[in-house]
Design a protein that fits this description.
The chain has 320 residues and is α/β, with parallel strands linked by helices. The chain is 46% helix and 19% strand. The strands form three sheets. Strands 2-1-3-12-4-13 form a six-stranded mixed β-sheet, with helices on both faces. Helix 5 links the parallel strand 7 and strand 8.
Length: 320
C-alpha cells in the first residue's frame, strides 16, 4: 500500500516536471521567435538606410576639365583639392583632367567629355550650345580682367603703334582669350592688323611673358594680372616689364556644366563654388588654386566678349 502511494506520488511529480519543461520550452521558443523578428526588422531597416548611399556610390564619376592655362602638372596640383572637396560634398567622385595644350583640351570640350569645365571666355561662347555657365573666377579680389600688351622697360617702346614690324609673342594659341584675342583687339584699335607685326606663340600664357623677359620677342600679349601670378613671379624679374596698353575690363574666366546636367545638381555645384570663401576649408582650397573666390555668372555676362571676338574674328559663327 505504501509502495502504491509512493508510486502515484512519483508519477504525479514526473508529469509536473514534464509540463514545466514543456512550458519553459514553449516560452524559450517564443522568445527566440520574437528575437528573430526583431533582428529581421533591424536588418531590413539597416538595408533600407544603405540604399541611398549605395546608389550615390554607384553614380558615374563627374569629370572636371581644367584648361591648360598653366603646365599640366601644376594645374593638377592647384585644382586637386577643389575636385576632392566637390566630390565629398556631392557624395560622388569628381575626376580632375587637363590637357597638354589648348587644341587637345578643346577636343574634349567639343566631345562633351567634361561634366564640369573651367576654360577661357572664348571657349565658353563657342560651346554655349553644349555648356551652361554657372560661375566665374575671382583673382586678387576682383572678378574682372583685361587683356594687355607688355614690353620690356628698356625697349624704348612707348606706344602700341611702335609695334608695327615687331615680333609679338602670344600665349597658347588663337583661341587664348586673354593672351591672344584681347591683345589682338587692342592692336586693331591702334590701327595694327595681323600682318603688320610678326606673330609667334608660346605653349601657354605664362611662357609668353617669360619669353619677353628673355628677349625672345619685342612684346607679349597676355592678361593684365598674368604678371602677378606666382608661376610668373618665380620665373622672372617682373619689375623689368610693363603694360604698354590694356583693354576694357571683362568678366573673368568661366566655369560651366553640361547643358543636360540636372538643374538641381548644377545649382548645387554653383552654390558650393560661390560659398567657398565663407568656410575656412574653402579659403584654403581657393588659396591653393591661386584664387580669392567665385562669382555667379550667366550667359549674358559674356556678351562683351562676343563683341570683341567678332571684331577680331569677323567670320566666326558663335552659338547662343
Amino acid at each position: 500500500m505504501t509502495r502504491g502511494i509512493k508510486g502515484a506520488r512519483d508519477a504525479r511529480q514526473t508529469l509536473a516536471d514534464t509540463r514545466e519543461r514543456s512550458s519553459a520550452g514553449t516560452a524559450l521558443a517564443g522568445r527566440r521567435h520574437v528575437m528573430l523578428g526583431l533582428l529581421a526588422t533591424l536588418g531590413l531597416s539597416l538595408a533600407e538606410r544603405s540604399i541611398p548611399a549605395a546608389l550615390a556610390s554607384s553614380a558615374a564619376p563627374l569629370v572636371m576639365g581644367i584648361f591648360p592655362r598653366r603646365q599640366a602638372t601644376l594645374t593638377t596640383e592647384l585644382y586637386a583639392p577643389l575636385a576632392a572637396y566637390l566630390g565629398r560634398e556631392l557624395g560622388r567622385e569628381v575626376q580632375l583632367v587637363t590637357a597638354k595644350d589648348f587644341d587637345a583640351f578643346w577636343d574634349g570640350v567639343e566631345q562633351r567629355r567634361f561634366d564640369i569645365v573651367h576654360y577661357n571666355q572664348f571657349h565658353y561662347v563657342r560651346s554655349a550650345d553644349k555648356y551652361r555657365v554657372i560661375a566665374h573666377n575671382e583673382e586678387f579680389g576682383t572678378g574682372t580682367v583685361a587683356g594687355a600688351l607688355y614690353v620690356r622697360k628698356d625697349s624704348g617702346i612707348n606706344a602700341i603703334a611702335q609695334l608695327r614690324g615687331r615680333k609679338i609673342v602670344f600665349g597658347g594659341g588663337t583661341d587664348a582669350m586673354m593672351s591672344y584675342i584681347l591683345p589682338s583687339y587692342l592692336l586693331l584699335e591702334a590701327g595694327l592688323k595681323p600682318g603688320d607685326y610678326e606673330t609667334v606663340f608660346s605653349k601657354n600664357p605664362p611662357n609668353s611673358l617669360i619669353s619677353l623677359y628673355h628677349g625672345q620677342a619685342d612684346a607679349s600679349g597676355a592678361g593684365d594680372i598674368l604678371i602677378d601670378l606666382p608661376v610668373v613671379r618665380n620665373a622672372m624679374d617682373t619689375s623689368t616689364v610693363t603694360h604698354l596698353g590694356m583693354t576694357e575690363r571683362v568678366l573673368h574666366l568661366p566655369w560651366a556644366v553640361r547643358k543636360d546636367m540636372p538643374q538641381a545638381l548644377a545649382a548645387r555645384i554653383q552654390a558650393l563654388l560661390v560659398e567657398l570663401p565663407a568656410r575656412e576649408e574653402g579659403r584654403a582650397i581657393l588659396a591653393r588654386a591661386e584664387m580669392t573666390g567665385f562669382g555667379e555668372a550667366r550667359d549674358a555676362d559674356y556678351d562683351p566678349h562676343r563683341r570683341i571676338i567678332r571684331k577680331v574674328m569677323p567670320s566666326i559663327d558663335l552659338p547662343r
